[in-house]
Design goal:
Helix Hairpins, two-stranded antiparallel sheet, 10 helices, 62% helix
């Protein structure tokens, strides 16, 4: 009950000020008029010319005094209105950094405050649009750069095969194998890009079910071990044997874990080892992927989860094709969609990625 009454009083503040100014101007003009009439009767008696002129003078005098007094009493309101008008002109001229001075606590002050809020939001929106445009350009540039290399190689090998520019069957088989390898790499890049755009969409939906993360991790490691062995890497499993349940999208979680394993494969010292562990409590499950590799600078570590960011190629394993720089970004997006997180703990040459997920029916987008 009290709040509407207070708002009503606040809304009437300027109207009350103007009304009081009018009353004061009227009182002052009437008083001055009466003083002048009194002076006329006391001093001007017997002066015929003054008696004839006075009736024509008294009314304009009253109006002039009233107007001057009213203008003086309302000059601050007029000044603030002019300041508001100039501020609006400045903002509409394109200067969104300008803020209208807020010196009043009445309606004009609230109008100035609302204009400043609107300008700030508009400035933030324009900044976001510029950032989105820049991000779009980076996306196009990144796609073009990453797709050009394997595509150029494919065209080159096909041209060699088409023109019969091979010496024997062995070289022919090698050209075909290289073409297939580059085509597979190109498909992997396109799959990463498609997955990233799907995860970045606001309409992303998860096919979430209650699954055993321990079983999923064992299956992924069973498929990954031969690849690791070919690259002189030993897998150390510390995941236990008891079921660990969580409500997740199994395909996407498998994609996130696979991206972490492939990242460790690319950037581990060879020969070496990749350690995978899983810790649980009543709130969350933490899957850790640990490997040793060339240390990163602080700047490189900060950018590691950015899309299309790839650490210097000198860190890449020989014979392993580099990706589009989307793997870790995709893995983090998947974790966040499930209400979890993906972090990196980096000490000297030891890298530990930790994927945290809700232990049971936690938050996820459905």
């Amino acid at each position: 009950m009290n709040k509407p009454v207070m708002q009503s009083k606040r809304k009437q503040k300027i109207q009350l000020n103007i009304l009081l100014s009018m009353l004061l101007s009227l009182i002052l003009a009437a008083t001055m008029n009466n003083v002048l009439i009194y002076f006329m009767f006391q001093v001007g008696t017997g002066m015929e010319w003054l008696e004839k002129v006075f009736p024509y003078f008294i009314t304009p005098f009253f109006i002039i005094v009233f107007i001057l007094t009213f203008l003086i009493l309302t000059r601050r309101i007029v000044k603030d209105l002019m300041t508001l008008e100039r501020g609006l002109q400045t903002i509409t001229g394109g200067d969104l950094s300008y803020r209208v001075p807020v010196k009043r606590q009445d309606e004009l002050g609230r109008v100035a405050f609302n204009i400043n809020q609107m300008t700030e939001r508009l400035e933030q929106q324009i900044a976001k649009e510029r950032e989105a445009e820049l991000s779009k350009m980076e996306l196009i540039t990144g796609i073009s750069h990453d797709l050009r290399t394997p595509l150029t190689s494919i065209i080159g090998y096909i041209e060699l095969l088409r023109s019969n520019s091979f010496q024997d069957q062995e070289e022919y088989d090698r050209f075909v194998q290289n073409t297939y390898s580059k085509a597979t790499h190109l498909k992997k890049l396109l799959d990463d890009l498609f997955e990233y755009t799907r995860l970045s969409s606001i309409d992303t939906r998860l096919e979430a079910h209650r699954i055993d993360l321990c079983q999923l991790l064992n299956q992924l490691l069973f498929e990954f071990e031969p690849i690791a062995y070919d690259n002189e890497l030993h897998i150390i499993k510390e995941i236990g044997s008891l079921p660990v349940y969580s409500v997740v999208d199994s395909d996407k979680i498998a994609r996130a874990i696979d991206n972490l394993l492939m990242n460790a494969l690319k950037y581990s010292f060879k020969p070496g080892a990749i350690r995978i562990n899983m810790l649980t409590d009543h709130k969350q499950v933490t899957i850790g992927v640990e490997n040793r590799g060339t240390p990163l600078t602080r700047e490189q570590q900060d950018k590691l989860f950015e899309r299309f960011y790839k650490v210097d190629h000198s860190r890449s394993s020989e014979g392993i094709q580099t990706g589009a720089g989307l793997g870790l970004s995709i893995a983090r997006n998947i974790a966040e969609l499930h209400g979890g997180s993906l972090t990196l703990n980096h000490v000297n040459d030891l890298f530990t990625f930790q994927l945290r997920l809700p232990a049971e029916a936690g938050k996820y987008k459905a």
